[in-house]
Amino acid sequence: MELPKAYEPNNVEKKWYKYWEENKVFSPNKDDNTFTIMIPPPNVTGILHLGHVLNNSIQDILIRKQKMLGKNILWLPGTDHASIATEAKVTKLLKEKGINKKDIPREEFLKHAWAWTEEYGGIIIKQLKRLGCACDWDRGRFTMDDEYYKSVISTFVKLYKEGLIYRGKRMINWDPKGLTALSDEEVIHKEKNGKLCILNILFLILINI
Q: Residue 75 falls within a domain, yes or no?
């Protein structure tokens, strides 16, 4: 057998990853001596970036090390619907086609959103596989799966009934274009010198009384 002069990772990686998948190398087969990692699900808003590669490479090292130590491992993969970001992407896509989101019914917009999810969610999974991630793909989850969704709603209702979730007045990040609240992580912060007038101060005092 003649060895190639240069290492060709494409041929080697595809061959062995196919073998791993077919032989369920990274699927747990018992309930004891386990080691589990839940993948931080990437948003279905495009493709993986360098941060995903770094994060998943570290998890891959951890899960493979535990398998080599004899643990029954499970690296559970998944994707996140990221509704606000996905809506923005779909709205932009429709705009490029000359369609205004406000001119179509909710059901039609959701069809476009699901089409986007199926296309880019699939790309992300293929990219994770191409990286060689040792996930159990038979157990993959999406945050809008029926069982997952029902579990989230059930937990939300439970926390509400226990008084741990309640309505209150708070300063929030508001998107005037998307007409929705945003988390701090979704905001690009910029410092700007300005003046705080007395009316603004009174308003802040009144909403907190």
A: yes
In a domain? residue 189: no
The arithmetic mean of pLDDT across residues 77-101, rounded, is 87
pLDDT for the residue numbered 200: 67
Where residue 66 falls among pLDDT bands split at 50, 70, 90? very high
Contact indicator for 173, 186 with CB cutoff of 8 Å: yes
Question: Which residues span the domain enclosing 62?
Answer: 9-168
Look at residue 85 and tell me if it is in a domain: yes
Instruction: Tell me the percentage of the chain whose pLDDT exceeds 90.
Output: 39
- Give the model's pLDDT for residue 199: 67
CATH number at 120 reads 3.40.50.620
**Rounded to 5 degrees, what are φ and ψ at 75?**
-110, 105
